[in-house]
Amino acid sequence: MIGLLSGCRLFRMLLVLSEDHKEHLAFLPKVEPAVVREFGRIALEFIRRGASPKIYEGAARKLGVPVEMVQHGVEGLMFLMTESSKHMISEVDFLDSVLVLGFGEELNQILLQLYLQHHSQIRSILSQLPSNLPAYHSLEWRLDVQLASRSVREQVIPMLTMHLLLTKGSDSISRVLQTDPRTLLHLISTLEAALASMKTSHARRILRNIK
Predict the structure, then answer these.
(1) One digit per residue, pLDDT tens: the chain, 211 residues?
(2) Are 204 and 99 in contact (CB under 8 A)?
(3) Pairing between strand 157-168 and 135-146?
(4) What are the transmembrane regions (predicted)?
(5) pTM of the model
(6) DSSP letter string over 42-110?
């Protein structure tokens, strides 16, 4: 069973941004890189302590733009950073996720550095927030192989049993799942194919034009 698991490639994780989030972030290329970094600092501060309308108003006065534009830009960055940190996406997947925004290389690198520098702290903050969804705690597995039965003397029937433990607040949720290795490998290959399809130029064009 160890050989089976070691042969499985790691899944890729890409963020799919809604049109609202794209619209909120569309403001960033219109300002200087220093302003983007400042927006990033504000977004991270708001993640830690909550939003402050006065900060939005002050930034809007300095830039000479509507308060709503600043608010949307910061909120768009907050969403991008929290979702990326929540799913622990890799550096490559982060850059591929923001590719649909059509930003230049400099802006993409600024966003990437914000994520890489602060994702651990953001995950720590998110872990302290109350959630209605169960969270992963641990997974135990066992591979059983039936070699014979009363009716058939020689046979090989492998079965994978997984014990999934989830937590929800102070409660624990236990789930027992069973499958055969062939089905498990088919599931893995199907998920990998779905994730790979999102990397194609055709899929990227669709994501850019989804309304």
Answers:
(1) 323 333 333 455 777 778 888 888 888 888 888 888 888 888 888 888 877 888 888 888 888 888 888 888 888 898 899 888 888 888 888 888 888 888 889 999 999 999 998 888 888 887 776 666 777 889 898 988 877 766 666 677 888 999 999 887 678 889 998 998 889 889 888 888 887 777 676 666 665 554 3
(2) yes
(3) antiparallel
(4) none
(5) 0.56
(6) HHHHHHHH---HHHHHHHHHHHTS-HHHHHHHHHHHHHHHHHHHHTT--HHHHHHHHGGGT--HHHHHH
